[in-house]
Specification:
- Helix content is 41%, strand content 21%.
- It is α/β, with parallel strands linked by helices.
- It folds into two domains: 201 residues, Nuclear Transport Factor 2, Chain: A, CATH 3.10.450.50; 183 residues, P-loop containing nucleotide triphosphate hydrolases (Rossmann fold, 3-Layer(aba) Sandwich), CATH 3.40.50.300.
- The strands form two sheets. It has a seven-stranded mixed β-sheet. A five-stranded parallel β-sheet has the order 3-4-2-5-6, sandwiched between helices.
- Strand 10 and strand 11 form a beta hairpin.
- Helix 6 packs across helix 7 and helix 8 packs across helix 9.
- The longest helix has 24 residues.
- Bound molecules: adenosine-5'-triphosphate and the ligand Nc1ccn([C@@H]2O[C@H](COP(=O)(O)O)[C@@H](O)[C@H]2O)c(=O)n1.
- Its EC number is 2.7.4.14.
- It comes from Klebsormidium nitens.
- It is an enzyme of class 2 (transferase).
């Protein structure tokens, strides 16, 4: 399963072929993000992202497949401010220049479905916290659009109160814009597709098929009690008995057939949603193991890219400050802390500064991960692989070295309580060059 995921989300390295399994996980670079016009506000209003991608993205009107870049394997939630409405002019690159071609990363989409109040939003928050997906709630996007002064505001307000489904033309655009603006490639799309029209429009417009559909199965009486309780404080126009009844009808008549459609394709992972929030989350965690493994491999490739690129800042961000290491340079001793490694980054600097950007790009070494194995033990993970490093010698001839590397990662919480993997220990073998 991991290999299947990697085949989709990574590109093959240019090392030897044959039995050797080579993956080059991520270049760490963001590609152009497509945006789609819908209404009248500006992109600046809409995005509250931590990623640098928004600030310096060169926006183009390319489609999905054209250039989907990748951000860190980090953890981002989208803001709830409206991000729907981006003018076509805003979407064009301000400089007129096209960004350098980046390796396309296919978006990975999981649809999260279930009746109103079944707990979709609650569990999406958990998944974001632990597995680093971007959570896009179609309902939240519509509510934000409604409040933004959009031309569609009144129509959306009526549809929500009546428990009816907003035309896909609006919802799919909102989703496309939010996906593009995120700069990420792994999405939990919550409360969508709500009917067959939603499903067909999304497939047609994006060409994306979901990895799977996470379906929360919950009886109406449980959902009703939850929604009425939520209604005491949510301020939502549809958390009242009259709207709830209408929403249930819409769910049975229009949304259940969508679940049946995906069930026919073997894509539905059904979860009983009546238990406690913690129990429900425990039951969905196994579906996300493969993504966690892919995240770790991505983080490892970013680390190697930082080393190859001489980018100490990027390297230090991924590492625990107490990083320990056995590596040939330490002559059999355990290197503790980042100082030992920083020495090598600093050493490279004057050479890099002296060179022109063009020649720098040419002489930069390149590491490819081969035969990876990722094992996760709770909050600790071990990533083992062979690192094939291509470089250029002083006589300008290329050479490749191979090291066996074992890298240990530990899951820690950032300031916002989101899980992030920190590199805590590694062991690198010596290797002859050929
Ligand atoms: N397993 C659970 N046990 C008890 N209460 C829950 C559980 N899951 C969610 N809730 C509560 O039920 C309410 C509805 O949950 P949530 O908002 O996650 O549902 P939803 O499926 O996203 O609903 P909607 O589609 O209406 O937005 C919330 O108040 C939430 O705290
Ligand atoms: N694909 C969708 C999703 C939602 N809506 C409308 O929003 C209402 C609230 O949705 P929640 O997911 O937050 O419960 C929903 O009842 C619909 O009116 C939609 O039209 N299309």
């Amino acid at each position: 399963m991991l290999q299947a995921l990697l085949r989709r989300s990574v590109y093959a390295g240019n090392g030897p072929s044959g039995d050797l399994k080579i993956v080059r996980a991520l270049s760490g670079a963001l590609g152009a993000a497509p945006v789609y016009p819908l209404g009248t506000s500006t992109a600046q209003d809409c995005v509250g992202l931590t990623s640098a991608s928004h600030e310096d993205s060169h926006r183009t009107k390319l489609g999905w497949a054209a250039s989907w870049g990748l951000a860190a394997a980090g953890f981002t939630t989208l803001c709830s401010t409206p991000l729907s409405i981006v003018q076509a002019e805003d979407a064009a690159s301000t400089s007129g220049e096209q960004p350098p071609a980046k390796s396309p990363l296919k978006p990975i989409v999981i649809f999260v479905l279930g009746g109103p109040g079944s707990g979709k939003g609650t569990q999406c928050e958990n998944i974001v916290r632990e597995y680093g997906f971007v959570h896009l709630s179609a309902g939240d996007l519509l509510r934000a659009e409604m409040k933004s002064g959009s031309q569609y505001g009144d129509m959306i307000a009526t549809m929500i109160k009546e428990g009816k489904i907003v035309p896909s033309e609006v919802t799919v655009r909102l989703l496309q814009n939010a996906m593009a603006a995120s700069g990420k490639n792994k999405f939990l799309i919550d409360g969508f597709p709500r009917n067959d029209e939603n499903r067909a429009a999304f497939e047609r417009e994006t060409g994306i098929q979901p990895e799977f559909v996470l379906f929360f199965d919950c009886p109406e009486e449980v959902m009703e009690a939850r929604l009425l309780d939520r209604g005491k404080s949510s301020g939502r126009s549809d958390d009242n008995m009259e709207s709830i009844r209408k929403r249930f009808k819409t769910f049975v008549n229009q949304s259940v057939p969508v679940v049946d459609h995906y069930d026919g394709l073997g894509k539905v992972k059904k979860v009983s949603a009546t238990r406690s929030k913690e129990d429900v989350f425990r039951s969905i965690q196994p579906f996300f193991t493969e993504f966690q493994q892919a995240n770790l491999l991505e983080a490892t490739q970013m680390l190697l890219d930082a080393i190859d690129g001489g980018d100490y800042e990027a390297y230090a961000k991924l590492c625990d400050e107490k990083l320990t290491a056995f590596e040939p340079e330490a002559q059999g001793h355990l290197a503790e802390g980042l100082g030992f490694h920083k020495f090598y980054f600093d050493l490279k600097k004057p050479v890099a500064d002296a060179a022109s950007p063009e020649s720098l790009a040419l002489i930069r070494p390149k590491s490819t991960i081969s035969s990876p194995k990722v094992s996760v033990y709770g909050d600790v993970a071990v990533v083992t692989y062979v690192r094939l490093q291509q470089d250029v010698g002083s006589s300008k001839t290329g050479f490749t070295s191979a090291h066996q590397e074992t890298r240990v990662w530990q899951r820690k919480r950032d300031g916002k309580g989101l899980a992030e993997w920190k590199h805590v220990h590694f062991h690198r073998s010596a290797a002859p060059s050929v």
